[in-house]
Amino acid sequence: MTNAGRGATLTFLIMSATVRRPPLAVVLVAIVVLALGETAGAAMSRFKPEIQRYAAARVAANPGAHGFSGSAEYDDEVRERAIFTAEAGLAFFHLHGMGVGLVLFFASALVAATVPGRRARAVLYVLLTLGGLFPLGYVVYGAAGLELGRDAGIELAERWILTPLGVSAIAGLAGLWLALARRRA
Amino acid sequence: MREADAPTWRVPPRWVLLVAVLSIVAAEIGGGSMARFKVELTRWARDGMLARPSVHGLVGVRDVDERILDEALVKFDAGLRLFHMHAEGMGLVIIATSMVAASVIRHVTARRAIIALLTTGGAGYPVGYLVWSALIPSYGLERAKTIAEWLVWVPFGTATIVALWCLAGLVAWSMIDRHRA
């Protein structure tokens, strides 16, 4: 990193050389995921009643998917569980959006600074960036739970979004670790 | 592209890094204090609530009052926990996003404004959880939450969200600009 160009006098150097940064596309995905996570966090508390009302309406619109029996006590319990799952999806999205956005940012910064070879860097950027989209799986988790029923919704989110994107994140981080280990050797 | 032309990071202003690190330090101290002074903190909150029975709806019946006090103490503890978590996270968010802003945004006024919003919003927002916890014994659960919401969470949270989306827009714009050039 460098402050050259600002005209400021440094009293100490953080690093002795300039440090490459990742492509702007990767940085953009990290910032957008952070922004979405932050916005979801605000929406969770500010619009809690509206979200609960929307979730209840979607559950009522899909009675077969939720296994309504016609018994008020049982159906109320099913409805409450479905609404809780939707809220949990949003909470997980907020948490993971903030965390995974930061992981993508710092991991891709390390790739840019330490991994030699354009092709290796490109592969790691793709894996890490796809992994950076992992939190979106929780939006699907919440929404699909309301439309398809709790268990079917969770299975859809896990099979098609959370697992593949999670594997991609892990592969990207493992690749970064290997590249760092090889570099030291 | 020559090595010298490769895109590089620029360090954000020192005050930004100091604020970010201070936020993380405060989070660590908060987390440690929560464990080390758990008994003292709980006693302080409980004594504060018992001193204001009408605020908390205490009626003098043990079974009723203990449930009310327990619920309030759980929320008091949750506020401290959420401060610890958010101050840690937002410290890192400030460092990452201000680095991006310093490195990518060319327009001086826009860069300074976004960095200022990210830093003040990011550092200020977690304090809302401390305010919430601190006010529970004196004002009750709901009023304490409302005060923390409008004094801290809404202004500082809004600053961070607006700055993040503006930063995303400017990064996208920068990408399009470089692609054209």
Quick description:
Chain A is mainly α and 185 residues long. Helices cover 79% and strands 0% of the residues of chain A. Chain A has helices at 24-46, 48-61, 63-66, 72-114, 118-132, 136-148, 150-184.
Structure description:
The complex is a heterodimer of chains A (185) and B (181). Chain A is mostly helical. Chain A has one domain. Chain A contains seven helices and no strands. The N terminus of chain A is likely disordered. Chain B is mainly α. Chain B has one domain. The chains are: A mainly alpha (185), B mainly alpha (181). Chains A and B meet through α1 and α4 of A and α4 and α7 of B.
- The gyration radius over C-alpha positions of chain A equals 22 Å
Poorly predicted regions of chain B are 1-5
- Indicate the mean pLDDT of chain B: 93
How much beta of chain B, percentage-wise?
Answer: under 5%
Number of domains of chain B: 1
- Helix count of chain B, per DSSP? 7
C-alpha Rg of chain B, in Å? Answer: 21 Å
Distance between the termini of chain B: 14 Å
Task: State the distance separating the first and last CA atoms of chain A.
Answer: 25 Å
Main β-sheet of chain A, in a few words?
none
Order of helices and strands of chain B: HHHHHHH
Query: Count the strands of chain B?
Result: 0
- Taken together, the total number of domains of chain A comes to 1
